[in-house]
Amino acid sequence: MKPLRLLPLFVTITSIALSSGAARAEGEGGSDQPDAGNSGLTILNDATNVTHWGLGAGVGLRESPYKGDGMQVMPFPLVSFDDKWVHLIGTTVDLKIGDWSGVSVALRGRYSLADGYRQSDAPILNGMENRNGAFWYGPALAWHTAYGTLSGDFLLGGNKGERAGLDYSKSFGLGQFSITPHVGIDWLSSQYVNYYYGVRPSEARSDRPAYTGTATWNVSLGTRVDYRLTAHQRVLLDVGVSHLGSGVTDSPLVGKRFIPEVRIGYNYQFK
Q1: pLDDT tens across 229-260, in order?
Q2: Domain spans of the chain?
Q3: Residue 137 contacts residue 22 (beta carbons within 8 Å)
């Protein structure tokens, strides 16, 4: 339908990245190379504050994981803003904490437009309480190298649980094109899975038994292609597929294990 407590693992990942000398980048264009001129805590950095911003929009096509629900069509914003302190892309905003030898750290806030459902979306959901999207917040980091960008975050969503993600991407320039293969793994807490894929005893029926969600891992693979029309305009195409973990697929609400997704967008960069 609409588009998973692992703090020890996140701390471990962060420590490894920092000791290797590591904010989960959004990856909407941008370089794998670190900016050597902006090292240290942002608040102590005296680098010139340069602002970049742009406007655009796109549409996403995504197969719903719920039984009886087909392809979803969902518009999304491509508003972008970046300066010394803040990075904004779409519904995600990062407050920049600092950068050390290509390892950037940020505090992230994100509103997930894709999560949740209405009971009218599919027959299997009839009689279920509606599930809503959430605002997620937490630490994020990215390790930028000549070999690509390794990024991760650990986000909290109030009563909807926690989620953590780790991604790797590498961009290749081909004239006006930029091609970026990417692979990711997402951990979803049991509270998250239970909220979006669980069935409460009061919601159970003969073809929909009660189900308590368990923590799980989702894996995704895809490729993004950016094409620069002019110095200020670009279009993007992102094609990928996700493999849902057993905590999700064991739910009586779910009828698919592989979820294909396509995103198409346009952005005008003013500065």
Answers
A1: 999 999 999 999 999 999 999 999 999 999 99
A2: 7-26+53-269
A3: no
The answer to whether the CB of 196 falls within 8 A of the CB of 115 is yes
What is the dotted CATH code of the domain comprising 7-26+53-269? Answer: 2.40.160.40
pLDDT digits (tens, 9 = 90+) for 91-106: 899 999 999 989 999 9
| Main-chain phi, psi angles of 19, to 5 degrees | -70, -20
Query: Tell me, what's the pLDDT at 10?
Result: 37
What residues form DSSP beta bridges with 155?
163
| End-to-end C-alpha distance for the chain, whole angstroms | 36
* Kind plus residue range of the DSSP H or E element containing 145: strand 135-145
- The mean pLDDT value for 119-133 works out to 94
Predicted confidence band at 38 (pLDDT cuts at 50, 70, 90)? low
Two tokens, residue 73:
């069509």
Two structure tokens written together for 169: 């991407």
**What are residue 255's phi and psi, to 5 degrees?**
-125, 10
pLDDT for 32 equals: 52
Strand positions, DSSP E, 20-112: 40-41, 52-63, 71-77, 80-82, 86-89, 92-100, 103-111
| Amino acid, res. 80 | S
